[in-house]
Amino acid sequence: MTLRQLLPRGVVLLLIVGPAGCAGLKPYERGKLAHPTMLLGDLSRAGPAHVYAIHEGAVGGDSGAKGGCGCN
Amino acid sequence: MKVPLVVIRVPKADAAATDSSCQVVVLRCVIALLLVLGTQIVGSAAAAPASQAPMADSSTGSTAKARKRSVPKAKKGTTQTRKRSAARTRRGSRARAKKSSQPRAVEALATDNARDNVTPVTAPDLKREEAPLAEEEARAESVPATSSPARADHEPSGGPEQPTLVPTEAGAEAVAEPRRTDATTPVDSSPRSRGGPAAHVSLETSGYLDTDHVSVLSPNISAGLTDDVSGWSLNGHYLVDVVSAASVDIVSTASPHWTEVRHAGGVSASAAFDPVTVGASAVVSREPDYLSITGGATLSLDLFDKNLTPYLAFSREQDSVGRTDLPHEYWHSKHVNNLQAGLTVVLSRSTIGSIQWDGSFERGYLAKPYRYVPLFAPGQAASIPAGTSIDEVNRLRLSLRPNEQVPDARDRHAISAHLAHRGDAATLRLDERLYADDWGVLAATSELRYILDVRRRLELWPHLRHHIQGAARFWRRAYEAAPGPDGILGVPVFRTGNRELGPLQTITLGGGVRLKLAEPPGNHWDLVFEFDAGRTSFGDALYISERFMGYSTLAVEATF
Predict the structure, then answer these.
(1) Cβ contact (<8 Å) for B442 and A72?
(2) Model pTM score
(3) Is 50 exceeded by the pLDDT of residue B30?
(4) What is the DSSP string of B418-430?
(5) Which residues contact B486 (CB under 8 A, 6 or more apart)?
(6) pLDDT surpasses 80 at B319
(7) Which residue in A46, B489, B533, B546 has a CA-CA distance of 20 to 30 Å to B231?
(8) How many other CB atoms are there within 10 angstroms of residue B316's CB atom?
């Protein structure tokens, strides 16, 4: 993979954060944001997150394999 | 959902196919663009007057747990539930009118507590409230929520056959007073309803199996206490990995099939001192040939009414790496400093996003002590194709087979963006990560989940993940011995057989289901099952060119 190939993925990333701008919501306007599925943490459970971290050459973005790998 | 179907068409990841992944990436850009446009449209709709917002949105802000309780109730869809919800909303409006001089956050908590303290309305009460509630629901669609105090002054009085509750200040006072309880209506007497800490426990078992003859069984237990009102939490987890392997790496070195057990446990805690939240965590992991101890701290800051939350995290990992047949004093050491900085932004009433940088700085022994690298005669490597079998490699390689050796420092960086959008009965999650390190590895990872509320107690979600990466600078499919000036063959300084440092591509497709066995009032019990299947294509590796894997998790979660 080269930097040139990584560029389109950068565009995807920018599209995700592109609309960033404070909505300025009051607490009572956040009914939907309080839904459990809206928490921005890694939705992968501990097991799958560990597998991804071991099987991929990349780390970060909330999925890591802290504490050994069981595959040394 | 057509998105997964589009992405599945990613070609096999050989060196050339990796180039062609650009086509897929462009398609993904278009999908992401459509997604964001859709998000913006929905966000604009949500920004319309509150009169068009659902009743749940017009309720005063509350803790996450309290909202979580209220959302399923609103979804019940029965007339009675909607009326109760409307009554609560009206009471909340009165409480706001009375306490308009207080800060909004305090007001929200006060109203929420009042709501929690209200005992269910008796049947006669409901009859008496039915007609005015229907009227009020209708009015709520034309009057902005912010006009609640004025609305109270203009409520019409009902006719004789339509008794009306007159909304007065005394009425707001009465909300907090004990009322008769209907024997048929359950009362939420859990600690959460009283504003105390909630305890949660999760038991899960995961199983992993792949075509490289590796299997893992991993039971895991986690538990914790959380007090959303006071803003503190305390959590712990413990897991066991039972790994059984006879992979090509093991077979190629004529090692026997082995089974290993890893134990890992950790604790974490956090506390909020408005607007700052601090946290700390520690993890210890031990297996026969690896010991790891990690400690970390987090800091976040709530700005602009919690619409903007920057955060920082730091952790240090201290590892000892060895072999089961080596005394501990001969083990190697390794340490990792992890830094994380990010920003969470509320984009609209139904959308939240974040962007994050992760830095991981590894120092020490970064190779695998069991891994040996086959060497070939000068000029021979080009004739060794990807996926060459173990027998063929053993026939062609030199007798010399050195240990893996990689640089003793690695700086790794990742930028990731996360987006969550909540529709009427579904949540869309989109994650993108770009990665680069000073070994020359570049990678991109995309993940998508669409969590659908099929029924009030049933959630289903498809899951798609795509990872693609390039090779490290010193990666070679086949390493050649290098002749020295004196004619003696030497070995390359850096050599590795770690396929995760070579070019690869993984597509994972799966899903999950969450069945809510019991909901508040009372305790909360969930049963969760997830299954993922994946295929990894190794574009430039010996022994193996692809690997299929399956992963499943069964979990029971409870909150008391």
Answers:
(1) no
(2) 0.70
(3) yes
(4) EEEEE-SSEEEEE
(5) none
(6) yes
(7) A46
(8) 14
Catalogue all structural domains in chain B, each as residue range(s) with its CATH number: 15-368+382-559 (2.40.160.40)
Residue B391 DSSP class: H
Chain A closest CA to B375's CA: distance in Å?
Answer: 22
**Matching residue, tokens 């201290």:** B318
Assigned token pair, B508 = 């994972």
- A51 part of contact set with chain B, CB < 8 Å: yes
Q: CB-based burial of residue B211 (10 Å sphere; 0-12 exposed, 13-18 middle, 19+ buried)?
A: middle
CB of A53 within 8 Å of any CB in chain B?
A: no
Q: Do A59 and B60 make contact, defined as CB atoms within 8 angstroms?
A: no
Contacts of A68 in chain B (CB under 8 A): 262, 264, 285-287, 290-292, 319
Give the closest residue to A64 by CA, choosing from A52, B322, B548.
A52
- Of B62 and A49, the structure prediction assigns the larger pLDDT to A49
Q: Higher model confidence: residue B121 or residue B218? A: B218
Q: Find all residues with CB under 8 Å of B25, minimum gap 6, and list them.
A: A5, A8, A9, A12, B444
Tell me whether residues B33 and A15 touch, CB distance under 8 A: yes
Q: What is the ipTM of this complex?
A: 0.77
CB contacts, 8 Å: B58 with chain A: 28
Share of chain B above pLDDT 90, in %: 48
User: How high does pLDDT run on average in chain B?
Assistant: 74
Cα–Cα distance for residue pair B11/B4, rounded to 1 Å? 14
